[in-house]
Q: What sequence folds into this?
């Protein structure tokens, strides 16, 4: 994260940050989620230099991975409640990489790795598959608290994750204007004209605009599962990519109150679609940003119930696409509508080679009947 901050200020503002401008606080611990929260809180408050750095910082950029996501969010709530972080004078952004917020892939529950090597801590992660489990309820309450407090949250999933489904990494059951969702794609599989990649990016764009994806990302997650035996890509390479951190840095400094961009969500089906981010006039920038931050700190997170399934119903995918292609808010946005036209064209050109992707194309075949005016 520190490298990302330095690179951002150097490339965007021509400013070279000295090493003492950034204080790194590496919190590490093992065990079940609540045990780790207690451990890490103790480590932080017992280190006076770290605690002073956190309390006095102008900006806090917090990076976490996998099980660290629920741990970090519950820890952040504790720090906010106890006055160690002061949201009215500090800006805080959490980057959660491959977070296990809705649990691992359900198919891993009987894995020998889970049964014999990771023990209680790993088994607990499957409790996150049910939003009504005791640990999920505590996690979701903490997430709601930190979002309402005004923290920015970047949720980044990995396209070839072997452990965490995309729907889990991006927490599909939660909505709030402070959440930004993104995906890490290994360079060797990326193609700008690949239908599946464009479909995922389009669905993420919908969620980031405050519009529904009709559970498309949830139903695509199963297809994206990487191999546990692969030596490249997936769950443990996402945190090695500098651009993943740069996304959180840009989100922190290029949206209000620092930056010129304002994110706005439609609050009802009767609203017109949200405008693209545009800079306010210079005379209004400071006051508008302050008002926006105050307003966002009052917004409650929208939490939907979630229960992971061993296998998704394959017939839902075309209905998800039908819902997207008939949504009046999506169709009223010319940019999104152009994206849809591009997707329909790419689908016709898509010739997947793997059995799993050929089956996906077969399931999506009904979208050929969709006509956009």
A:
């Amino acid at each position: 994260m520190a490298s990302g901050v330095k690179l951002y200020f150097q490339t965007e503002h021509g400013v070279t940050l000295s090493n003492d401008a950034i204080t790194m606080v590496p919190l590490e611990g093992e065990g079940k989620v609540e045990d780790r929260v207690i451990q890490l809180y103790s480590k932080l408050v017992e280190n006076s230099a770290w605690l002073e750095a956190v309390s006095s910082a102008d900006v806090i950029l917090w990076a976490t991975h996998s099980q660290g996501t629920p741990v970090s969010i519950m820890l952040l709530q504790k720090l906010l409640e106890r006055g160690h972080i002061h949201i009215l004078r500090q800006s805080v952004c959490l980057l959660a990489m491959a977070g296990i917020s809705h649990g691992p892939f359900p198919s891993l529950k009987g894995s020998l790795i889970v049964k014999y090597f990771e023990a209680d801590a790993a088994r607990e992660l499957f409790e996150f598959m049910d939003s009504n489990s005791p640990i999920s309820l505590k996690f979701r309450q903490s997430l709601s608290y930190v979002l309402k407090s005004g923290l920015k949250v970047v949720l980044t999933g990995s396209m070839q994750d072997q452990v965490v489904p995309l729907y889990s990494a991006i927490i599909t059951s939660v909505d709030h204007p402070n959440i930004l969702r993104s995906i890490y794609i290994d360079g060797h599989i990326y193609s700008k004209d690949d239908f599946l990649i464009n479909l995922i990016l389009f669905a993420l764009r919908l969620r980031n605009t405050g519009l529904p994806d009709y559970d498309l990302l949830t139903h695509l997650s199963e297809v994206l599962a990487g191999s546990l035996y692969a030596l490249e890509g997936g769950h443990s390479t996402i945190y090695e990519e500098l651009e993943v951190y740069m996304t959180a840095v840009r989100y922190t400094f290029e949206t209000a109150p620092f930056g010129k961009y304002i994110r706005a969500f439609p609050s009802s089906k009767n609203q017109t679609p949200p405008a693209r981010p545009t800079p306010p006039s210079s005379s209004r920038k400071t006051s508008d940003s302050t008002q926006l931050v105050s307003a966002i700190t009052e917004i409650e997170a929208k939490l939907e119930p979630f229960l992971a399934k061993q296998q998704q119903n394959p017939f839902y995918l075309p209905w998800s696409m039908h819902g997207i292609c008939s949504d009046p808010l999506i169709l009223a946005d010319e940019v999104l509508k152009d994206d849809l036209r591009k997707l329909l064209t790419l689908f016709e050109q898509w010739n997947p080679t793997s059995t799993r992707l050929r089956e996906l194309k077969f399931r999506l075949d009904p979208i050929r009947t969709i006509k956009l005016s």
